[in-house]
RNA sequence: GCGGGUGUAGUUCAAUGGUAGAACAUCAGCUUCCCAAGCUGAAUACGAGGGUUCGAUUCCCUUCACCCGCUCCA
C-alpha cells in the first residue's frame, strides 16, 4: 500500500487534515476531521472500556496472577515545574546538547572541553606525548599513540569509544594525512583527530569526555514546550506542557489511595494530550509534537511485579490483535537487557510495520515497561540517579538532593500483613494517534467489485473493525420514490440514538455503497420494493459484499451482534 | 540539523511571461428496483511574502509545508 494513497484518502474523506492548513500548515501538528474524530474517539473509548470501565475486578483474568482493580484519572497538562525536575525530563532537555554516538551520554555543548581537561584518558594522552592542554604545537608520535591505544590499562580501559582505540590504523593514517597538510595543531585539535577515524567522510569529530567516542553536532534539545503561568513573563513562573501523562498519575497516587479504597494490585488509567518538541516530526501523524496518550500505571507488590509485567505485555498485544491488527505487521519486541535502564527488569514494545518505514522496520505503538519503584521514590525522596545501583537520590555539588522530592509518604501499607512498601510499577503506555494511524494503514484496501454492467472496477475500502468504524451503518432507500425514503428515514431515526448512522438517498445506490466503503462503514441497510410489502430490508456487508434480508424490527439487534462478533 | 525533490480545484494531473484546462469527486435537477451508469447545469485552484517586469502561476530571492536519504528519537 502506498502511503500517499492513504494520506489523500484521509484528506478527501475527512479523517485527517494538516493543522492550520490555510496558513500553510505547521510541522508536526495534525487535525482530525469529521470521520477522524469519530475513529480516534472509538479507539480511545475501546481502550477505556476494555481496560478500565469494563474491567472485571472480581475474577482472575486469563494470564493474570490475581484479580485487580482499575480506576481512572484526568489531570492537568500543566503541572508544578518540580514534577519534571524529579521525573528527570528537565535535566535531559535544555540548552545545546551533544550526545555520544558510542556511550549515548549527553553533554552540554559548552561544558565538553571543560570536562575534557578533567578527563583521565585525555590527560593520559597528554602524558604519553609529554604535552599538555595548552600546547600550541604537538610532537605527534604515532608509535606511542598506537601502543597506548592497545594497552589494556591505557586506551582500552580509559577510552573504549575513542576511534584511536577502536581503529588505530585508520585513525593514525587519517591523522598523519592531515598533519602533512597542516604541520601544527593545538592539543584539543589533536584529540579531535584521535576521535576521527576518517576525516574525509565524517569531518573532524569531537570526542566524548566519558568514553572517547564521537559526539554529535551540538543541538538544541527543547523537548518540553515552555509556557508562563501568570500574567508576567518571568523566569520564575516558567512552566511546561507535559511530555507524558504518566507523571500526573504518580503525583496523584496518594490521592487515589486515600479517596477510593483501592487495594494493591491496582491500576490508574489516563487518556490525554502530551507535547514533545520533536526534533524531526515526520511520517504523517506518527511523530507529532502534540499527541494523545493512553497510559496505565499499574501498582503491585515487588515480589509479583514480574508476573504482572508479563500479564500486561501479553494483554496489550492481544488488544491490538482483537481490533484488527492481526497480521504479521504487528510484533511484540522484548528489549535486550542492555537496552534497559538497570532498574527496569523488563520492557517490551508493541510495534507495527507502518508502510512509510523501510521493509523490516517497525514503529512503536506502545511500550510496556517495568519501572520498579523509580517514579514513586523520586517524587518522595528527590530525583533518583538513574545510574546508581541500588538507586539513590542524585546530589548536587553541595551534597544536597539535586531536585528535592515532595517529602510526602508515598508508601503503601498492606492492611492484612501490615507490610509497608513502595509499590513497583508496570507502565503500559500507548499512543492514541499512533494506534489510530496503524488501524487506518491496516484497514486500507483496494479490491475489485463489478459495476452495473458486470465490469470489474477498483474499489477502495477501509476495512476497519466495526467497533472502530466512524459510522456503523448507513441507511438508503434503493430509489428516491415510491415511499422508500420515508421508510428508510424511520429506520435511520430509530437507529440514531443507539449507533452512529448516516442516511443517504442521493444518486445511484452503487455510488452510495462505494462512498461508505471509503469511510469504513461496515453495514449498509437498503430499503427496496419488498420492504414496503413485508417490512424487511437488506443488510450489505462491507467486506464480503453479501446481502442478507432481515426484518426491520431486528435491524438493531442484528447490527449489535455483528459489531460484537 | 544536513542534502535532494515537490507545491496548480476536494483528489490526481496538464498547460502558459499576457483570459489557467481535464478526469474523478462535490452540489442541483432529470432518470434509475442493488454495487463509482446516463443526460443537463453549477461551484471550486496557481502554498505564503518580496523582487525583476508594462504585465509573474511561470524568472529570481526568502519563507512555509510535504516527500526521499542521512542524523536524531527522552
Task: Give a brief description.
The protein is an alpha+beta fold. Helices cover 34% and strands 21% of the residues.
How does this model look, in words?
- By secondary structure, the chain is α+β, with helices and mostly antiparallel strands.
- The protein has three domains: 58-81 and 228-439, Bira Bifunctional Protein, Domain 2 (BirA Bifunctional Protein, domain 2, 2-Layer Sandwich); 97-220, no CATH class; 471-564, Rossmann fold (3-Layer(aba) Sandwich).
- 34% of the residues lie in helices and 21% in strands.
- It is built from 21 helices and 23 strands.
- Strands 3-9-10-16-13-12-11 form a seven-stranded mixed β-sheet. Strands 20-19-21-22-23 form a five-stranded mixed β-sheet, with helices on both faces.
- Helix 7 runs antiparallel to helix 10 (168-182).
- The longest helix is centred in the N-terminal third of the chain and has 20 residues, at 34-53.
- The chain starts with a helix and ends with a helix.
- The structure holds one RNA strand of 74 nucleotides.
Number of helices: 21
In one word, what is the shape? globular
Low-confidence stretches: none
Spatial order of strands in the largest sheet:
3-9-10-16-13-12-11
Give helix % range. 25-40%
Architecture (CATH level 2) name of the largest domain: 2-Layer Sandwich
Q: Any idea what the CATH superfamily of the largest domain is called?
A: Bira Bifunctional Protein, Domain 2
> What is the rounded Rg?
30 Å
Describe this protein with a few key phrases.
3 domains; 34% helix; BirA Bifunctional Protein, domain 2; globular; 565 residues; five-stranded mixed beta sheet; single chain; RNA-binding; Rossmann fold; 21 helices; seven-stranded mixed beta sheet; alpha+beta
Amino acid at each position: 500500500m502506498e502511503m500517499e494513497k492513504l494520506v489523500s484518502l484521509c484528506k478527501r474523506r475527512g479523517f485527517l487534515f494538516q493543522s492550520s492548513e490555510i496558513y500553510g500548515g505547521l510541522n508536526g501538528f495534525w487535525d482530525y476531521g469529521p470521520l477522524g474524530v469519530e475513529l480516534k474517539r472509538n479507539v480511545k473509548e475501546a481502550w477505556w472500556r476494555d481496560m478500565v470501565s469494563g474491567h472485571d475486578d472480581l475474577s482472575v483474568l486469563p494470564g493474570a496472577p490475581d484479580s485487580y482493580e482499575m480506576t481512572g484519572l484526568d489531570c492537568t497538562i500543566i503541572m508544578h515545574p518540580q514534577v519534571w525536575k524529579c521525573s528527570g525530563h528537565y535535566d535531559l532537555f535544555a540548552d545545546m546538547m551533544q550526545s555520544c554516538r558510542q556511550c549515548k551520554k549527553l553533554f552540554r555543548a559548552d561544558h565538553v572541553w571543560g570536562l575534557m581537561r578533567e578527563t583521565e584518558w585525555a590527560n593520559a594522552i597528554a602524558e604519553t606525548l609529554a604535552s599538555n592542554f595548552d600546547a600550541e604545537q604537538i610532537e605527534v608520535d604515532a608509535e606511542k599513540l598506537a601502543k597506548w591505544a592497545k594497552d589494556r590499562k591505557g586506551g582500552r580501559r580509559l577510552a573504549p569509544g575513542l576511534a584511536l582505540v577502536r581503529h588505530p590504523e585508520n585513525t593514525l593514517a587519517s591523522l598523519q594525512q592531515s598533519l602533512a597538510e597542516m604541520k601544527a595543531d593545538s592539543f584539543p585539535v589533536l584529540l579531535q583527530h584521535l576521535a576521527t577515524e576518517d576525516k574525509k567522510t565524517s569531518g573532524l569529530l569531537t570526542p566524548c569526555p566519558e568514553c572517547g567516542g564521537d559526539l554529535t553536532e551540538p543541538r538544541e534539545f527543547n523537548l518540553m514546550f515552555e509556557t508562563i503561568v501568570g500574567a508576567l513573563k518571568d523566569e520564575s513562573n516558567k512552566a511546561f506542557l507535559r511530555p507524558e501523562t504518566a507523571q500526573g498519575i504518580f503525583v496523584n497516587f496518594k490521592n487515589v489511595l486515600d479517596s477510593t479504597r483501592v487495594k494493591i494490585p491496582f491500576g490508574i488509567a489516563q487518556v490525554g494530550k502530551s507535547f514533545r518538541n520533536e526534533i524531526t516530526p515526520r511520517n504523517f501523524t506518527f511523530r507529532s509534537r502534540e499527541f494523545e496518550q493512553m497510559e496505565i500505571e499499574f501498582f503491585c507488590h515487588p515480589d509479583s511485579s514480574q508476573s504482572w509485567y508479563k500479564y500486561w505485555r501479553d494483554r496489550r498485544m492481544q488488544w491490538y490483535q482483537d481490533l484488527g491488527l492481526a497480521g504479521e505487521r504487528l510484533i511484540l519486541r522484548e528489549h535486550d537487557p542492555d537496552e534497559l535502564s538497570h532498574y527496569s527488569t523488563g520492557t517490551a514494545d508493541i510495534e507495527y510495520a507502518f508502510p512509510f518505514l523501510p521493509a523490516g522496520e517497525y514503529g512503536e505503538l506502545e511500550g510496556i515497561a517495568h519501572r520498579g519503584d523509580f517514579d514513586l521514590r523520586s517524587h518522595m525522596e528527590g530525583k533518583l540517579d538513574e545510574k546508581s545501583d541500588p538507586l539513590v537520590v542524585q546530589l548536587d555539588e553541595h551534597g544536597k538532593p539535586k531536585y528535592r522530592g515532595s517529602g510526602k509518604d508515598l508508601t503503601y501499607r498492606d492492611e492484612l500483613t501490615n507490610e509497608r512498601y513502595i509499590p513497583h510499577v508496570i507502565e503500559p503506555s500507548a499512543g492514541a494517534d499512533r494506534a489510530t494511524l496503524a488501524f487506518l494503514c491496516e484497514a486500507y484496501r483496494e479490491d475489485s467489485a463489478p459495476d452495473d454492467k458486470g465490469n470489474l472496477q477498483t474499489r477502495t475500502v477501509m476495512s476497519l473493525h466495526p467497533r472502530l468504524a466512524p459510522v456503523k451503518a448507513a441507511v438508503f432507500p434503493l430509489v428516491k420514490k415510491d415511499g422508500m425514503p420515508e421508510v428508510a428515514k424511520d429506520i435511520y431515526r430509530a437507529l440514531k440514538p443507539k449507533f452512529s448512522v448516516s442516511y443517504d438517498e442521493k444518486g445511484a445506490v452503487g455510488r452510495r455503497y462505494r462512498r461508505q466503503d471509503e469511510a469504513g462503514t461496515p453495514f449498509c441497510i437498503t430499503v427496496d420494493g419488498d420492504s414496503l410489502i413485508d417490512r424487511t430490508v437488506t443488510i450489505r456487508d462491507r467486506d464480503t459484499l453479501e446481502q442478507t434480508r432481515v426484518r426491520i424490527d431486528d435491524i438493531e439487534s442484528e447490527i449489535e451482534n455483528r459489531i460484537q462478533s
